[in-house]
Structures are given as C-alpha cells and as structure tokens.
Amino acid sequence: WSFIGGRTARTTARVPEKMAHRLHNSGVRIERREKPYSYAVLWLGSEPVNSMTLELWSAISDALTELEQDPAVRGVVLASDLKKHIFTAGNDIKELYAKTTSEARYTEFWRVQTSFLCRLLRSPLATVCAIRGACPAGGCAVALCCDYRIQSDTGTFGLNEVQLGIPVPKYWAKLFCEVAGRTNGDLTMQLGTLLTPPEAKAMGLLHEVVPAAALLPAAERAMGRLLAAGPDGARGATKFNMRGGFSAEWEAYIPEEAAAGWAMLSTPEIEATLGGVIQRLSKGKAKL
After folding, report:
1. What are phi and psi of 196, to 5 degrees?
2. pLDDT tens track for 161-218
3. N or C, fewer C-beta in 10 Å, the chain?
C-alpha cells in the first residue's frame, strides 16, 4: 500500500447506496453507504451464532480484500446480522477438535484466520466494530483489531479460552493486554472471564456502550468522526506506524503457531476436554 499517495486502485463498478451483495453462501454480505461518507457495512449472518469456521473466516477475508481494493471505500463497519443477540460465538469448536478436523484443515483454518486478523489490524480502511450481544474468543479478537469498538449494553466480551481448557493464543493475549493494560488483562485471561460491556469499557477494551437499538447509529457516527479527522493517507500511515511491526511479527508466527496448536489439540487430554465441551454445548446430542 502507498498510504500517502493513496490506496492501490482497482476498477470497480459502484454499488448504489444501501444495496448489498452476499459473498459465497457464508451469510456474509457487504452493504455500501455513500452519504455523507463512503464506507461499507460488513454484515456477518451465518446462523445461528456466527460460529467462525474456515468458510466464514475465508468469506470475511475476501470481503476485506474487496473493500480495500475499492478506491471509493474509505472504511468498514463490522456488525452481526443474526436473529439472536450475538456478534459471534467465536471459533467453531469443531475446527479445533482433532476428531472432527485434520491437520491440513486446521493449518489452513489457522492461516486464514490469523492472516485476516493481521490485515484487519493494519488495514488502511477506518474500521469500526458494532458488537451486538455476546462477543467471546474469536469475536473478541476481531473487535480488538478494529479502530473503534462499540457494544450493546447487554452481552459479554473477552478471551475465555481457559474456561474451555485451552490457552489464549499468544498474539491475541498480547493485543488484549496492550489494549486493556497488563495487570487487568493478564488476570482476566487467566480466569477466562467474560466481561460485561460496562466492565470491558472500564478496562479500555470498548470505546462506547449503548442500547442495542442505538448500536448501528453510534457505529456510523464513530465512522464519520474517523473519516472526517483528516486525509485517509495520513490516518492510515499513522495506524501502520503504530501497528505494522506488531502485525508483521504476528503474521510471521503463523506457521509455528499452527504447528504447535495442532500438536496440542491432538493430545488425548485436549481431545477429551474439547469433546466434553462439545457434549455440553449440544446437551449430549453430539456424536463424537
């Protein structure tokens, strides 16, 4: 990217305001807004809970690529399109349970997921996360990679992997502590605590907490402030200066982390732990 000279351009047919198109069969759709600023809303609508599968990570990654390559789009709001009061339930546990995946699929899953998070963190687009309801684990990681985070006044927020019997991924933990502060962030993750929105705001993890009905208007106002602050090139370059090194270090760690992750997940102890979680979530109906 050339931040000062403008983003890499791509010839793109403009989509009329508030018209949207869906990506793949994932439930992800892009809705473009043109007034008063040109940005997009990226709706995540993979019913029932936006479980983050390889396919869903791939779809939102493709959406980010499309929006970054469109010279008319200056920002993106990420929001849930679900019927339930959930932003995302986090990573689909079947992508982590060794008996329902494979080393090759898990490696690709981790690569696509982490590449997306690294790109979102340093994206030249202004990014706002509109969090309606529950936002654990992978959803929390997505939110932390955005410039501005707003949550509805009912819901949860945090990295609760310890409660599932697995560690918080290294760079997710680093980012959480960078935003929340080391002391509070460290203890919160060790306990696997899911915070209420007011608690998350008090720790600096959220910028605003609003009623659910006011969530999208608040996100649009935040986007307006980001886009009105100054030229996109200056804002994007400042973001890259602050986050580019961390993002590159995180991205370079993907192969090592994926290999270590699979080695852990395929142990009998972790298989048994995650199998128990699946049984609990399915109320004993899952066939493992």
Report:
1. -75, 160
2. 999 999 999 999 999 999 999 999 999 999 999 999 999 999 999 999 999 999 999 9
3. C
CA distance 146 to 75: 11
Number of other residues whose CB lies within 10 A of the CB of residue 21:
12
29 membership: H or E segment, kind and range: strand 28-33
By residue count, the chain amounts to 288
DSSP secondary structure string for all residues of 64-102: HHHHHH-TT--EEEEEE--SSSBS---B-GGGT-GGGS-
Report pLDDT digits (tens) over 13-29. 344 445 556 555 678 99
d(CA 273, CA 267): 10
Whether residue 131 contacts residue 232, with contact meaning beta carbons closer than 8 Å, is answered with no
Average pLDDT, the chain: 91
- Residue 148 to residue 230: CA distance in whole angstroms: 16
